[in-house]
Amino acid sequence: MGSTTGDALRNTFAKGPEGWCSYDYHASMVAGGRNIFILTTWERQGGPAGAGYVWADHTRWSADTPEQPLSILPLLFYRGWVNEDPIDLRNATVSVYLRGDALRLDGATCLFWVHGAGGRWHLNSRPLTITDGAWHTEPSRFLLPDDESRWHHSWPRSHWSQPLTQVLGAVHSYGFSFIGFSSEVTGRLSLAQFEITPPRP
User: Fold this and answer.
1) pLDDT for position 5
2) Which of 65, 171, 189, 193, by CA, is between 20 and 30 Å from 7?
3) Helix %, strand %, coil % of the chain (to 5)
4) pTM of the model
């Protein structure tokens, strides 16, 4: 479970994977598909400044075929798994380190996404940089704007979907996606020092 300092939420990975998983979707296993969540691997050290981090690779993720376009969800976190309520992320700021090792994107873009009762939205206006074989010297920092023109609504495209402001106002889960790949992304993706800071009053 992540820590909270003031109003900021942090995953430092000092003692474990803190609930972060990969998503492996198998449409053919049972009627309606089957959702499989696979816990990331935790490394005690080796992250930025020698701190802990987590990673997953292509053996733990697959394309989520109901999404439009197809999405891979290599790293995700559900608040309910750690008995936390939905969180308001409207205009919050995210800070994170992402690292790839032998990561073949095949044209994919890495995006941050949020999910709530009204579906999933990807922040397609802010593609993320993944360094290859090393941690970047500074984290990626970006805003989660309460502005639908900056996001893509990938799922569900149905009568019970909700506007972005309602989903951002009560986020159940969030994470990182690969979108736009020509073939399924392979390799390893690592995550360190994840932080969400709400806007100042």
Assistant:
1) 46
2) 189
3) 10, 45, 45
4) 0.92
pLDDT in tens, 142-182: 999 999 999 999 988 665 678 999 999 999 999 999 999 99
Give phi and psi for 27, each to the nearest 5. Answer: -70, -25
- Residue 72, strand partner residues: 63, 178
Q: Name the nearest CA neighbour of 67 among 177, 185, 162.
A: 177
pLDDT < 70 regions, the chain? 1-6, 26-34, 157-160, 201
How many Cβ atoms are within 10 Å of 15's Cβ, its own excluded?
A: 10
In angstroms, the CA 125 to CA 149 distance is: 8
Omega before 163 cis (within 30°)? no
What the chain holds in terms of domains, given with CATH numbers, is 3-197 (2.60.120.260)
DSSP string, 81-141: GGT---B--TT-EEEEEEEEEEEE-TT-EEEEEEEETTEEEE-TTSPBP-EESS--SS-EE
At which residue do the structure tokens 């019970």 appear? 160
